[in-house]
Amino acid sequence: MTDAQETAAETALRTTGGAPPDDVEPAPIPLLEPRDGIPPVVATDDALAQVIAAFASGTGPVAVDAERASGYRYGQRAYLVQLRREGAGTALIDPVGCPDLSGLGEALAGTEWILHAATQDLPCLREIGMIPTRLFDTELAGRLAGFPRVGLGAMVESVLGYALEKGHSAVDWSTRPLPEPWLRYAALDVELLVDLRDALEKELDRQGKLDWARQEFDAIASAPPAPPRKDPWRRTSGMHKVRRRRQMAVVRELWTARDKVAQRRDVSPGKVLSDGAIVEAALAVPANLPALTALPGFGHRMGRRQLEQWQAAVDRAKDLSDAELPQPGQPLNGPPPPRSWADKDPAAAARLSAARAAVSALAEELNLPQENLITPDTVRRVCWEPPAEATVEAVSAALAGHGARAWQIELVAPLLTRALTATA
């Protein structure tokens, strides 16, 4: 980090750490160009081999980022991978031309990867063979350190005093060739990640939270891939309007038909048929093609062949027997919604209220979000089905069983124990 960056970082961290801010904060410095220029996009095996060799011989942690084409393409695959490491510089890799980056992943084995919001990028990196064993998540570090805004641009600005360009985050990264301004933006995303990581590590250490962060990072790195979501059609936007089982079947059939078309065409499902149109069709259950065409989202711009496939999906739902219709709501895996606790189990509702108040107070005292201190789902599960004996040891075991880390258990177990015993 340069002297100017060091000064800016120390000033910003003092202000976020509770010390009175300066009367006038300096304006952030626009970061317009990568310090080494925009590197060429790596899209061949030979070029990839050179990058692998360079990054294998680099030193220190490696900054990693990935760009997807959400809203444009089917799925969440990576369309550009950016890396930066001391001694290797910055690399921009095209996973379309180089779909297997396992060799690069192996070359970086044991190296700490720096990512911002790691859980967003890890799934698409895993698909192309890049799986870290150690990581530092600058977004999560910012949350634990108590920063009010933890987006990458906000963090770089408040910690390092630089302003990143924000104009290309939601573009179609599957575009080829990628325009130079997009490549500049992508390279700048990893330009200061190492500097940001170092400054945040110092601040977490100052606040006594560095070990907490390391436990969180280890949990992310060791977490298995998320299983496929059960009944993903239930997440259709506007689904709360759909009450009847036959209508739910229409949503399911249209969602499934749309997903097959989107996957075949490699486009975002929303570009094939909107969620709003699916819900309108489910509420109306149109009897025929003219009735479907009259609904919002199904109009003159849609070809007859498309309309026929959507009406066929509606007809399939109409032909299902009652036994084949989906059940209202998903099977619960855990406690019921808290709003129903007072009626179902008043004692559990009292436990939850006491536990929430205690967790909220401690989170405020520690200057971090409640959900990072302990997940709300974990609190609900422990309060709904508490241990037979409400001791700190038993509550600690229950928290561990729900995936809480050691630092969380140490802080939260005594609070929950008191909440459970006070309302017994």
Structure description:
The structure is a single chain. The protein is α/β, with parallel strands linked by helices and 424 residues long. It has three domains: 3-222, Ribonuclease H-like superfamily/Ribonuclease H (Nucleotidyltransferase, domain 5); 232-324, DNA polymerase, domain 1, CATH 1.10.150; 338-422, HRDC domain (DNA polymerase, domain 1), CATH 1.10.150. The chain is 52% helix and 9% strand. It contains 20 helices and eight strands. It has helices at 3-16, 45-56, 102-107, 118-127, 138-145, 152-160, 180-191, 193-206, 210-222, 245-265, 269-272, 275-284, 289-293, 304-319, 341-344, 346-366, 370-373, 376-384, 392-401, 406-422, and strands at 29-30, 41-42, 59-68, 78-86, 89-93, 112-115, 134-137, 162-163. It has a six-stranded mixed sheet with strand order 2-5-4-3-6-7, sandwiched between helices. Strands 1-8 form a two-stranded parallel sheet. Helix 6 (152-160) crosses helix 8 (193-206) and helix 16 runs antiparallel to helix 18. The chain is flat, with a radius of gyration of 25 Å. The termini are far apart. The relative contact order is 0.09. It comes from Streptomyces lunaelactis. Residues 244-324 form the HRDC domain. One of its GO terms (molecular function) is nucleic acid binding. InterPro entries: 3'-5'_exonuclease_dom, Exo_C, HRDC-like_sf, HRDC_dom, HRDC_dom_sf, RNase_D-like, RNaseH-like_sf, RNaseH_sf. Pfam families: DNA_pol_A_exo1 (PF01612), DNA_pol_A_exoN (PF18305), HRDC (PF00570).
